[in-house]
Amino acid sequence: MKTTYFILFFSLISITIWGQISEDYISIEDEKFDNYFQNRDIATVKGKILNLSKEDIKEFKINYVIVVPFANFQSKKNCKLNADGSFELQLDNAFPYQQIWLTLGELFFAGIYAHTDLFIELDAKTIKNKGKVFLNGDGVRYLGADGKMNEYLNNHVLFKREEQLDISSKKNKLMINEDVEYNEFNKKNDSLYSLLNDIDNEFIKLNPSIYSKLIVNERKSDYYGSICVKNWGKTMSPELFDKIKNHPVHLMSNSGVLFNNYLYNYIYGTIDPNRNSGLKSIDTLIIKLDSIFPQSKSDVLKLHLRNKKLNEKKVMMEVTMKSIQTNWCKKLLQEEYDESFAKSTSIKEILKNANPSNSKANLGQLITRTPFGAKLYKVDTLNAKKLLANLKIVNNQKAMLIDFWATWCGPCIKEMPHSKKLQNETKDLPIEFIYLCTSQNSSIENWKSMIEKLKIGGTHLFVEQEIESELMSLFSTSGFPSYAFINKKGIYKPGAIKTMSDLTKNKIIELIE
């Protein structure tokens, strides 16, 4: 009798645990997620750094990027340590399994997941003796309800790390190779993902866990996303599309959000391959999304609408909001709508109030001037609004083409020769090319070396990461490269520049005026 009761008791416990896990893994596209989201508390992410001096605590920098379900899928933030070395990250919404890319000074970098509560403890003394920790290692403890999950998922990323990186590198090269025919791409892509799946399965076999489902889900999101990208402007087979459209996303992560982004763009591509129609195609797109997917899934995909031209974006968002029936999607899109136009108004006011007679306006510490016409400044004290105002004052009666970039950003570097060519072609026009390089994962030496190598003139600013992030947020952008254009009258032109390689001298002349 006791044995029967014992077995029954643990069976009920198992059912309860797995029931909770099943509910926790509910996809954001599930119709039940709306109520689930409304009744969840926002996760907490706290931590403490041990063995730091008072001076180190004052100088310590915490930067983090939260993954969000929009076309610009990342939100950048920063915070400071408290006097005792503790900290808390600020999250905005109650998403389950939300990925955060966290940088704790020169001690630690990791992609962490916030579900309920997470506490990260670092021993600065141990880490300084061994070097900066990537994901997990000596001197790092993941604690709280989300501790085991974060330890497990980060250990998976570290498992056979070099092998995973090598396969991922080949996969990325395959994705950007436009000379590979469609059938050949599918064959090679499947082969590479098969190798990654083998590594996943080996890790899971060696480390069985309830969180292994998240690893499998992430890999499928990544795989199906790559297929959507390569099928842009095509029509994939019904069998394949059925698998993709029914794939649930369990993590608010890069792979999960980008999968929905790529799926949205694939659908968009079937009705407007060149995306030239803009406002003309939005009604057709909404009708198509609603006809293909359940309402809850369709509404999630609508969050990925993209248009940097503010007037068109306003209309698109208003039309889209009328079609959304899922409460959490409507709430987030409304917040995005309000924030976008509040930021645009803020930029307008900053530029309007920038007084050209202010002789104290400066762009930071002048580092050097080069023979090829580059002026290099270090910016680490101005806030974003003051920096923008000073740029306007210094370049009075000139248009400004602002390029947000990073020394480690391949696409940024690729666009620089086009930018240099445009500079030469427009040197007699009233325009200043301004390059704002983030200090994130870079140094002044790397930055100066890159500019010298490129031999690209203009105004170059090496900007403290927090300042650059704040300024990029003001322009409603997050990734590198990003561009902003302000004409000679001081009027910001949202969405005027997508890439430097698409820009022409005639287009610049048009924008200047």
* Lateral arrangement of strands in the main beta sheet: 10-11-14-13-12-15
Strand content: 15-25%
Number of helices: 19
Largest sheet: 6 strands, mixed
Please give the share of residues in helix: 40-55%
Count of individual beta strands: 15
Tell me the overall shape: globular
- Overall pLDDT score: 88
Please write out the topology:
Elements lengths: L1 H23 L8 H6 L5 E7 L3 H6 L2 E6 L6 E6 L6 E4 L8 E7 L3 E7 L2 E7 H7 L2 E2 L5 E4 L3 H12 L2 H16 L5 H25 L5 H19 L7 H8 L8 H18 L7 H14 L2 H8 L7 H14 L3 H27 L11 E5 L4 E6 L4 H11 L4 E7 L4 H16 L5 E8 L5 H11 L3 E6 L1 H10 L7 E5 L18 H8 L1
Parallel strand pairs: 1-7, 6-8, 11-14, 12-13, 13-14
Antiparallel strand pairs: 1-4, 2-3, 2-5, 5-6, 7-9, 10-11, 12-15
Quick recap of the structure?
This protein is α/β, with parallel strands linked by helices. The protein is 50% helix and 17% strand. Strand 2 (62-67) and strand 3 (74-79) form a beta hairpin.
Report what the structure shows.
The structure is a single chain. The chain has 513 residues and is of the alpha/beta class. It has 19 helices and 15 strands. The strands form three sheets. It has a six-stranded mixed beta sheet with strand order 10-11-14-13-12-15, with helices on both faces. Strands 3-2-5-6-8 form a five-stranded mixed beta sheet. It has a four-stranded mixed beta sheet with strand order 4-1-7-9. A hairpin with a 3-residue loop joins strand 5 and strand 6. The N terminus is likely disordered.
Main attributes?
single chain, 513 residues, alpha/beta, six-stranded mixed sheet, five-stranded mixed sheet, 19 helices, 17% strand, disordered N terminus
